[in-house]
Write a structure and sequence with these properties.
The complex is a heterodimer of chains A (about 325) and B (about 500). Chain A has about 325 residues and is of the alpha/beta class. Chain A contains ten helices and 14 strands. Chain A is about 35% helix and about 25% strand. Chain A is globular, with a radius of gyration of 23 Å. Chain B folds into two domains: about 250 residues, no CATH class; about 250 residues, no CATH class. Bound molecules: adenosine-5'-diphosphate and magnesium ion (MG).
Chain lengths: ~325, ~500
């Protein structure tokens, strides 16, 4: 089996082929195709109403596609829903918890429901690091803690593929970082993670692949930097903000930056800050900095204005309301 | 946690932590105990007959018990499924691999356990009644048996409506409304109303006492009538109602992609013959042929009313099932049942089962009719009533099938069907009245004008009562319409069948 890993035709963890989903007269998802490899953290990204949850409900066997097929580890979600349910751990968006029940009882309940022995609960509690919460009422937990409990629940039957719908929405920044680290841990443990989001920043660092969805159609799919690169080659521009030592160099600095290859739209220096749009990635930035230094302008710092993924997202979903 | 009943255990854990439960129990017990004691004190000072007092307390206690079961039971269980949906725990639960059947059963049991708690808390008060005499310990025990059955139905009602409504509040309001309305109706009809008939039949059963069934079980002499009226009828009525509610819960817990109506179809298949038999019970024990014919007509009307409602509610299936369901059926092709999904098979099954049962009912009545001087008239009346009912029912089935096969959505198909049925039933008699009024009754026999209405059976009865030869025309008009509705129904169904086959062929391409 291990030899098969290097072969290109190994069954992907998730395989979506020409998926379309129609509700009455409304086309929610149209002709979607993508594969998710084993061990990936796959970001499924798009503005609200793009069709992420609809696609996820098909993946998790809750909906039958109008057309196309979806397979999880080679099992068809339409024809083998029971098999697929054993393979996946699905965490719905805004997943709820039960009232008047402790974290331990909550997990015991789902352990009994999925039919795994009691001692598994201790394992998932350790894995998700919620031991101290064990005897607290689930309803009394913070959003981030609840989300960890939900992840623990999803892990009970040791699924190969985790399907998480908006796992980081409603979380405060700290909880978001913790969630991110947890997902990376899980991927290291061999899980495939498929997660959706309409906010990007929190996912940029952890996703190995992303698919960007807009109005039910796939607009981009692949590794984050590859998408970024293909965008740059076309119309995409990054913007950066430059901070220079205040002084008499403002005019000269603006000119130097403007003269560098790959730079457009320079906004003149104001209170020591200068911003510009550029193409060509980090090389352009480096060229700008060395030209400035050579010209005697003291450079204090350079920062890209938005994260790479967010830029990609904004440019491919341009005109969409968030 | 118990591996076999996780939902039940979790619901119990949660309800034990609900602070209001013990308070409610205490208040309820106190109020009821004091109320009954006061009732006792007042009644004794008036009449001083302790036996009658015991009877009174028995009736009062179980009436209140009925009320508690009908209100607490559904109120508790009505939140059980809806709260999972509203609280967004539903997807996790259904994907955990627990079947909707299992979830429905455990939710029902959890609801029953909670309302059972109230009943148990009240039970010592029931002891008051046989302390005073007038009722035996066995009767009190049987009173609890009936109360338990009522509590089961009430909890099932809550579970079912909880699955139908997606919001907890809506589910609770709907359940309480339904349980108060149905509970009140059943209490008035089966409790209070039928106690008079029961008293007529067996004088040992007191008149106007709604809780008569446990008394009847002890006091009525055992025999065929006892078995039919006191055992078969209650069991069939409770059983089919409970089963229906259970299947309602299951159907509404299944996803859209599943074969939601399969449980309903199985229920229909068994309930229709059972209810047909239950409807026959009073007919079989009737003491004269005159009464027998009357009761047979009432039973027939109730029976067709029931099958009509069931057809409307459950028969408006889509032409074909989802891919997942079709695949599942194909895998188990070896053991096909007649409860298959799909519009045409469903309606064919409904019509087949209903009409066969109606035919059996009719034959049953005819077999028990005497051979006196009026035997031909009795025979004619029973046959015309059942034949007209069956013919018209066939038409309704055909109509619904065509509407669905032609692509109307379920709701529209139902509305059109009801509209057509009302028009067909009321239109012709109204037309007859108008004609009568405008022609001053001068021109010949106008009665046959009303013959397309199923209500025309009344005119056929009249014609059969009368020895006047001219009324034969009325009878022939009725027969003609029976043939007419049968032909039309068959044709419509045939059309639906062809259409559905074409649609399936298209889908398979
Ligand atoms: N059951 C349904 N019936 C009708 N429309 C639906 C249904 N589910 C989703 N939609 C519609 O499909 C679109 C996509 O929804 P969704 O998949 O929830 O988007 P996202 O999760 O990306 O925000 C929305 O416009 C939504 O209104
Ligand atoms: Mg969504």
């Amino acid at each position: 089996m291990s030899a098969a890993v290097s072969q290109p035709d190994v069954t992907p963890a998730i395989s979506v082929k020409n998926l379309s989903m129609r509700f009455g007269g409304f086309q929610a998802v149209q002709n979607l195709s993508f594969d998710v490899g084993h061990g990936e953290i796959f970001g499924f990204i798009g503005p609200n109403g793009a069709g992420k949850t609809t696609t996820i409900r098909v993946l998790s066997t809750m909906l039958e596609p109008t057309a196309g097929t979806v397979e999880v580890c080679g099992k068809d979600t339409t024809y083998d829903p029971e098999e697929v349910r054993r393979l996946i751990g699905y965490m719905p968006d805004h997943a709820g918890v039960y009232e008047r029940i402790t974290v331990g009882e909550f997990l015991q309940f789902f352990a009994a429901a999925v039919g795994v022995p009691k001692h598994v609960v201790a394992g998932v509690i350790e894995l998700t690091d919620i031991g101290p919460l064990r005897d607290r009422m689930v309803t009394s937990l913070s959003k981030g803690q609840k989300q960890r409990v939900q992840l623990a629940r999803v892990l009970l039957h040791d699924p190969k593929v985790l399907i998480l719908d908006e796992p980081a929405s409603d979380l405060d920044p700290r909880a978001r970082i913790e969630m991110r680290d947890l997902l990376v841990d899980l991927a290291k443990n061999g899980k495939t993670v498929f997660l959706s989001s309409h906010i990007l920043t929190e996912l940029a660092e952890v996703c190995t692949q992303v698919a960007i969805l807009e109005r039910g159609r796939l607009v981009a799919c692949g590794p984050v930097d590859a998408i970024g690169r293909s965008m740059r080659n076309e119309t995409h521009k990054d913007t950066a903000r430059l901070r220079i030592l205040p002084g008499a160099h403002d005019e000269r600095a603006t000119d130097i930056v403007r003269a560098t290859a790959g730079v457009h739209d320079v906004t003149p220096v104001q209170k020591g800050f200068l911003s510009f749009a550029y193409q060509g990635g980090d090389e352009t930035i480096a060229a700008v900095v060395s030209a400035l230094v050579a010209g005697g302008v003291g450079v204090v710092g350079v920062e890209p204005e938005r994260s790479e993924l967010e830029q990609v997202f904004l440019s491919v979903t341009a005109g969409e309301q968030q | 946690m118990n591996l076999h009943h996780p939902i039940f255990v979790r619901e119990m854990q949660a309800s034990m932590r609900l602070a209001r439960t013990p308070w409610l129990l205490m208040i309820l017990t106190l109020v009821l105990g004091l109320g009954l004691a006061a009732f006792g004190a007042m009644a004794t000072s008036d009449r001083g007959n302790p036996a009658e007092l015991g009877q009174g307390i028995f009736q009062a206690f179980f009436s209140v018990g009925y009320l508690v079961a009908m209100i607490f039971g559904p109120a508790i269980s009505s939140a059980m499924v809806a709260s999972e949906r509203e609280g967004r725990t539903w997807e996790a639960l259904i994907l955990s691999g627990l079947s909707p059947q299992k979830i429905a059963k455990e939710k029902f049991l959890a609801g029953l356990a909670s309302s059972g708690l109230y009943i148990i808390a009240l039970s010592p008060i029931a002891g008051l009644s046989f302390l005073f005499g007038g009722v035996s310990a066995t009767e009190v025990f049987l009173g609890f048996v009936v109360l338990f059955a009522v509590a089961c139905l009430a909890s099932l009602l809550g579970t079912a409506l909880s699955a139908v409504w997606k919001q907890q509040r809506g589910a609770t309001i709907a359940t309480l409304t339904a349980s108060i309305m149905f509970g009140g109706l059943l209490f008035a009809l089966f409790g209070f109303g039928s106690s008079f008939a029961m008293h007529d039949k067996w004088h040992a059963i007191p008149e106007a006492h709604p809780i008569w069934l446990p008394l009847a079980w002890v006091r009525a002499p055992f025999g065929v009538d006892y078995v039919l009226l006191l055992i078969c009828m209650p069991i069939i009525l409770f059983g089919t109602a409970g089963w229906f509610l259970y299947e309602t819960a299951v159907a509404h817990m299944k996803e859209d992609t599943d074969d939601r109506a399969s449980g309903y179809r199985r229920w229909f298949l068994w309930s229709v013959p059972a209810l047909g038999f239950a409807a026959m019970c009073p007919v079989l024990v009737a003491d004269s042929d005159r009464n027998r014919v009357g009761l047979a007509v009432v039973s027939g009307v109730l029976f067709f009313g029931f099958t009509f409602a069931a057809l409307l509610l459950l028969g408006a299936e889509p032409v074909t099932a989802s891919k997942r369901v079709l695949m599942r059926l194909a895998r188990q092709a070896g053991r096909r049942s007649i409860a298959q999904p799909g519009l045409v098979t469903t309606i064919a099954m409904f019509l087949g089962v209903s009409l066969t049962t109606a035919a059996a009912m009719m034959l049953g009545v005819i077999a028990t009719l005497g051979s006196g001087g009026n035997s031909m008239r009795n025979l004619g009346q029973v046959m015309s009533a059942y034949a007209y009912g069956a013919a018209f029912f066939l038409f309704v089935g055909g109509l619904l099938a065509v509407l669905r096969a032609r692509g109307s959505n379920a709701l529209l198909a139902r509305l059109i069907t009801v509209g057509v049925v009302v028009a067909a039933a009321l239109g012709p008699p109204i037309f007859l009245l108008i004609m009568k009024a405008t022609t001053d009754g001068a021109t010949g026999d106008l009665v046959p004008l009303a013959s397309p209405s199923p209500l025309y059976v009344a005119a056929m009865f009249d014609a059969l009562e009368s020895s006047y030869r001219a009324r034969d025309a009325d009878l022939y008009a009725g027969m003609l319409c029976i043939v007419g509705w049968t032909t039309l129904g068959t044709a419509l169904f045939g059309f639906a069948y062809m259409r559905a086959r074409r649609l399936r062929a298209l889908a398979n391409q």
